[in-house]
Specification:
Layout (H helix, E strand, L loop, with lengths): L7 E10 L14 E7 L3 E5 L4 E3 L5 E4 L5 E5 L4 E9 L10 E4 L3 H16 L5 H16 L13 H12 L6 H7 L4 H12 L3 H19 L4 H7 L5 H12 L3 H8 L5
Antiparallel strand pairs: 1-7, 2-5, 2-7, 3-4, 3-6, 5-8
């Protein structure tokens, strides 16, 4: 069996009180989320009409591309972690996974909340390690059958290279790394992912930019450079064409809510 190494990147760890501001916010994001509420009144209305009620005490994992709206009729305490996962998790279907909460997991949440509220610089490492442990414990509850869509190891390797690259990689270079002819690689990549290598690359670079806009303070020039765009104009034009708003408008909209 080939090793499966799910690297986790933490974006934000926090706890706050939900309210009307959470209602009708779009669920779709560029990263994974882990939720646990203490109190009733919140749910996720999926695009297909199903409603996922966020039951107090349980954990919920939300995949990046799951589509729908948040609903909130109360003001429960809301613990959340936003994080990224490696390309290996792209094989999962887009949904909300409901997970049970063990005593150990609940103890981790309590410790994390204390560390978040303390805001002591020296606690950052302990906070990150606790959050990573909680994310890993929850990810383990995803049923094994969800991973049945096995990706070709050559394509999975190319997806990982694309995801970690700071610029767009050419098909010929990706094909060489996969030990395939360029055309054969491109065909296999589309068969496995439903997208061309360049489409997949653009999606990943835009997702990385969205995370930086929402969770970071870098200016647009720095984000454009980090995500492989030639300049701010190219980045802004591409981002708006694919995300429906300019990077500046996206940042303003996502930061209009408490974090």
């Amino acid at each position: 069996m080939e090793p499966f190494l799910p690297s986790v990147t933490l974006h934000i760890v926090n706890c706050l009180q939900l309210g009307p501001w959470w209602r009708d916010m779009p669920v779709k994001r560029s990263y994974w989320r882990l939720y646990q509420n203490q109190g009733e009144g919140a749910s996720i209305l999926l695009k297909d009409g199903r409603e996922v009620v966020i039951e107090p005490g349980r954990f919920y994992l939300t995949t990046p591309e799951v589509d729908g709206l948040f609903k909130c009729e109360g003001c429960p305490r809301h613990f959340y972690i936003h994080f990224g996962l490696t390309a290996a998790y792209d094989r999962l279907r887009d949904c909300v996974y409901s997970c049970s909460a063990t005593a150990e997991a609940n103890a981790l949440v309590k410790e994390i909340v204390v560390l978040v509220k303390s805001k002591v610089e020296g606690d950052a490492l302990a906070l990150s390690l606790d959050a990573l442990q909680l994310v890993a414990a929850t990810l383990r509850q995803i049923p094994p059958r969800e991973f049945e869509r096995i990706l070709d190891s050559r394509i999975l390797g190319a997806m990982t290279r694309i995801e970690t690259a700071e610029r767009a990689l050419r098909n010929c270079d990706l094909a060489k790394g996969a030990h395939l002819a360029t055309n054969a690689f491109a065909r296999l990549f589309r068969q496995q992912t439903g997208k061309s290598p360049q489409e997949y690359s653009l999606d990943k670079r835009l997702a990385r930019a969205a995370v930086m806009l929402e969770h970071g303070g870098a200016d647009l020039k720095r984000i454009a450079e980090s995500c492989g765009f030639c300049d701010v104009c190219h980045f802004s034009r591409t981002f708006k064409a694919n995300c429906g708003m300019t990077p500046a408008a996206f940042r303003k909209a996502r930061r209009a809510f408490p974090v």
